[in-house]
Amino acid sequence: MKLGKIILILLAAMVCATMFASCTVYRGYNNAVALDEEVHNAWAQVENQLQRRFDLVPNLVQTVKGVAAHEKEVFTNIANARSAYTQAKSVGEKARAAVGFESALSRLLVIREAYPELKANQSFLKLQDSLEGTENRLSVERKRYNDSVATLNKFTRKLLGRLYASLADVEKAEYFKVSDDAKSIPEVDFGSKPSGG
After folding, report:
1. How do residues 78-100 score in pLDDT, each as one tens digit?
2. Could you tell me the CATH number of the domain that includes residue 166?
3. Residues 6 or more apart in contact with residue 115 via CB below 8 angstroms
4. Around Cβ 126, how many Cβ atoms within 10 Å?
5. Tens digits of per-residue pLDDT, 112-163?
6. Residue 189 belongs to some domain of the structure
7. Would you tell me how many other CB atoms lie within 10 Å of the CB of residue 143?
8. Nearest to 173 by CA among 195, 135, 144, 193
9. Is residue 191 part of a domain?
10. Residue 35 located in a structural domain
11. Is the pLDDT of residue 186 over 60?
């Protein structure tokens, strides 16, 4: 009888240990999935703001073309940068293409300094204000995305986190980084509007 009790106690302990391990794996798996979804959701918000930017730029380009039609290289660079974004497949490729687009766009906005007519053009100023608002929202969404990426990547670097991420088929995510080239671009002047116009 004593041997039977020992076997029952051992079996109960094994069942409890198995249930505990299963619950731990279940929670870890679900945590990996949730973190991955947060990254995807944050990226979707970044893409919403990028799309808003892309929607504003053609009107901005048309307004500038009306005044500075000979700046063809700038217009070509914007078209090429937008095309690179639409052809990008991964989040990392899209992020790099978006940074290239920012670079091309900033060159377009710097043109305003050479053309006084643009500084007084109400359509250009309204588009510039809308674009500034979009850039601010994009900056916020980019930070949220990078924060989500940091949380996921920290999780996947931990010993058990790596196991859970592997089980859930979750991989490390790429940060949305600004390239060194983009950092050296001249700052765009969203200065005050001319008075009385």
Report:
1. 889 889 998 999 888 898 889 88
2. 1.20.1440.20
3. 64, 67, 68
4. 14
5. 777 878 777 888 888 888 888 998 999 999 999 999 999 999 999 998 999 9
6. no
7. 13
8. 144
9. no
10. yes
11. no
Domain assignment of residue 196, yes or no: no
The two structure tokens encoding residue 35: 């973190």
* Structural domain range at position 139: 2-183
Locus of tokens 């979707």? 44
User: Could you give the 3-state DSSP secondary structure of residue 192?
Assistant: coil
For all residues of the chain together, what is the average pLDDT?
Answer: 83
Ordered alpha helix ranges (H), 68-158: 72-87, 91-110, 116-120, 122-157
pTM above 0.90, yes or no: no
Q: Identify whether the C-beta of residue 155 lies closer than 8 Å to the C-beta of residue 165.
A: yes
**CB distance 25 to 164 below 8 Å:** yes
- For residue 103, pLDDT over 70 is answered with yes
Residue predicted with more confidence, 49 or 15: 49
Q: Report angle CA 190, 192, 193 to the nearest 5 degrees.
A: 105
Number of domains observed in the structure of the chain: 1
Instruction: Give the confidence band of 181 by pLDDT, cuts at 50, 70, 90.
Output: low
Read off the tokens for 82. 């937008």
Are the CB atoms for 152 and 36 separated by under 8 Å? yes
Written as six digits, the tokens of 18 are 């198995």
> Which helix or strand (DSSP H or E) is residue 18 part of?
helix 2-67
Query: Residue 26 burial by CB count (10 A; 0-12/13-18/19+): exposed, middle or buried?
Result: exposed
